[in-house]
Each structure stands twice: as C-alpha cells, then as structure tokens.
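Assess this one:
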Amino acid sequence: MSEPVVRIGGEAPEDVDMGGDSNEVDEAIEALEGADGGDGADETLAENAIAKPTFVDYLRSPIIELSIGAGDDMTTLFAHQALLARSPFLVDALAAFDPDVPAVRRIEFESEDVQTMGSFLEYLYTGEYFPKKTGDGLEGAAESMAAAAAEDDGERLLQHARVYTLAEKLGVGELKALAHSKVHRINSSAKGEIAYARFVYANTPRDDNTIRKPIASFWGQRSHVLRHEAEEDFKQLCLDYPDFGFDVLSYVLDARERRGGREREEEVTKSGRKRARMA
C-alpha cells in the first residue's frame, strides 16, 4: 500500500462547512488520545470526564476530502477530521492542515479500495461495519447462503482481509480485531480459501501470526481433501508464496510430532506396567 498524499488548496465548496472552532477540534482530538498521568492526575481525569466530546462535537470538526483510487476510478469520500484522528497514521497528515485557512483539505489514497475505505469510515462513525456480527454469524448470512455455495472467488473473505490490512496500516487495532473475527464466521469454497490465503500472504508481514497462523492451521488440517478441489491453484499458491507452503508443512509436522510423542508415552506406560507385573 502506498502512503497517502496530503493536498491543501482550492476554495472550500459552499455546501460543505469547512469551519468549526479550531480549539473545539483540538479538544476533541486530545480527548481521543486520553489523559496523561502525573501530578494532579485525578483532577485531570475529572476535567476530561466533564469535557468528553459528544458525537455532535465530532461533527463540528472540519470536513476532510478523501480521494480513493486514481484516474477514472477515483472516488471522493468525506469524513470529519476529529474522527479521522482516531488513526495514529493519519494524525501527521491532519496536522498539515492550517485551521485558519479555509482551503479544501484533501488526503489521497491512490492504492486503496473504495469499499474498504467505506468500511473504515463506517466503523469510525458507528463502531461497526457491514455485515455486522450477529450471534455466531454475520448480518444477512441467511440471504446470501445460495450465493456463498457457488462462490469461488472468496470475495466475502477478501472483504474482511482488506479491512484487516487497512486497519493495520492506519493503526486502528480495534477495527483490525473486528475484521479478523468476522473471517472465522464465513464458510467458503476451496478456491475462495485459496484467494483469501493468497491475499493475506501478499499483503501482511511474515511475523503476523494473528492472521497467518489460522490459515496454516486450516490448510494443515484439510489440505489432503481440499487440494483436490483446486489442485492447480493450491500448487501455484505454494510456488508463489513459499512462506505459505512452509507454514502449512510446519503445522502438519508439529501435529505429527505431538501425536508421536503421545504414542511413545503410551508405549512406555504399557511397557512399565508389564515389567511391574513380572517383578
């Protein structure tokens, strides 16, 4: 993913309120960062509790224009600055905007997906994103079962994988955890699982065991069956991403070693009992 580009310039459109007291915006952003410790900590906490911004306070902050994609595929979204400040990654970009200059405040995300960015903004405003978690499943799961049965591209898995990687980049840990939890509520085809694994191994660091380890476990337990449904795709995935093949093999060997250890313990126990009876 490329770094977002900050643009400042042009006149603010009349139908978008670029105003808002800069002090109110600063207070809202500072409140999101939490209270500092030290002398008078109790007093500071009490003051922050009283001054905790409401949702209306967030909506009073300046509007930020978000350009997603490039060229003919570019889409423009809008969000309030104080809510975007929940992302540590965006704090520096937001700091570049002068609160006293009524110019269009724009951040460009040329390599991001508009639907994924939409899910990110939905989470900032509501604390969730569609499809929402309901019990052990996801909202609308019953209506999409027929489509899911025929799914081969893994798009439902990829939706949450994209949100996961964007949340990782923007430093929003709660959204990252939410996206990962939704992955485990989805059933997909062998080809869909391969598409998901391919995306994860292409877009996450090698030490990200949170999302990679469950994939290795999944294929380590089922590869002897699922690979026959998409054998060429599975083979190509192993060739393109050796880390994937190594992780799956490691899981299988570790499981076999654990089983072998238990079998040896049982043999020793049985042998010990026999010698005891002969004594």
